[in-house]
Amino acid sequence: MKIAVSGSSGLIGSAIVESLHERGDKVLRLVRRHHPMGPNEVIYQPDWNPQTFQDHAKELSKLSGLDGIIHLAGESIVGRWTQEKKKRIYDSRINSTRLLSRILTDPKIIAKPPRVFLCASAVGYYGDRGEEILTEKSTVGEGFLAGLGKDWEAAAKPLTEAGIRVVHLRFGVILNPHGGALRKMLPVFRLGLGGKLGPGTQYMSWITLEDAVRALLFALDQSSIIGPVNVTSPNPVTNSEFTKTLASVLHRPAWFSVPTPLVRLKFGELAEEIVLASTRAVPETLQQAGFSFHDADLNQALSFLLTRPV
To answer: Is 182 part of a structural domain of the chain?
Structure first.
């Protein structure tokens, strides 16, 4: 197959590109530079005015005839959420998805649209929901991330209306020792200074990078999968359970606890939306479609990730 990927230099993007190459697919990288660096790159700018698409028609026509597009690009949510940061988080996702939706449904530019469009989303769509078990049928929550997720997924509606199969990948926390949240946790836990954050009762929906990539490829290939997909392990855990498991795998204590006020002081608004929020999402769509997880148990997953050779 011939697949275009945005966000190809990120944690998930680089892993998916590698996996696509390994199985023999041809990959085009969607990049936001002004000049492409190689023959397998296509330039797009999220702030392009639709009225000027024809100015870039030659470049964008490379997207015609693709089997699929995997759209993963977006400003990192890590960092203190100033108004400017939140605007970058929002605009980088919604504007780029709207732009691609307009390009791919413009017959003057794209003679043959892709069969499938996989777009990143996140379990933040559900908001802070306590112990409630959340499936793809659950309603949208409240807060910045929930609103972001709702608008992000709505931005791809023109593609659905044009007959393109659209999949919204609602990612949980991606576990990999070389990137993301786990990489930031490891130094502290290896020093024996790890501990629960806030009450510790908040649920965390997690998945290993390997399973996330496998799930993404599964959704790419399975024509029956349409709409939202929770890309999470079937066994979400509380923050306290995660803390104890990680410390145990590293053979370190987990005596410390960071009080909720200190979590809020350190992380600001991000604390309420991510660190202290409870999201107990399960991958009902993937499981019903027959997807098999390699890493469904947290202890086994962390043991494998942290003991295998680099």
So the answer is: no
Q: Which neighbouring-strand residues pair with 165? A: 116
Torsion of CA 18, 145, 274, 87, to 10 degrees: 80
> What tokens were used for 274?
């991510």
Q: Is residue 111 one of the residues assigned to a domain?
A: yes
**DSSP-assigned letters across all residues of 48-100:** --GGGGGGGHHHHGGGTT-SEEEE-------S---HHHHHHHHHHHHHHHHHH
Rounded Cα–Cα distance for residues 285 and 230 (Å):
7
Tell me the Ramachandran region of residue 43: left when phi exceeds 0, alpha when psi lies from -120 to 50, beta otherwise. beta
Instruction: Give the total number of structural domains in the chain.
Output: 1
Name beta bridge partners: 28. 4
Contact residues for 36 (Cβ-Cβ < 8 A; gap 6+): 42, 43, 59
Torsion over CA: 293, 194, 186, 268 (sign): positive
CATH number at residue 84: 3.40.50.720
Assigned domain for 286 exists: yes
The two tokens of residue 161 are 């209306």
Range of the domain at 85: 2-175+207-232+281-295
- Structural domain includes residue 197: no
Please indicate, yes or no, whether the overall pTM of this predicted structure exceeds 0.85: yes
pLDDT digits (tens, 9 = 90+) for 206-243: 999 999 999 999 999 999 999 999 999 999 999 999 99
What would you report as the CA-atom Rg of the chain, rounded to the nearest whole angstrom? 20
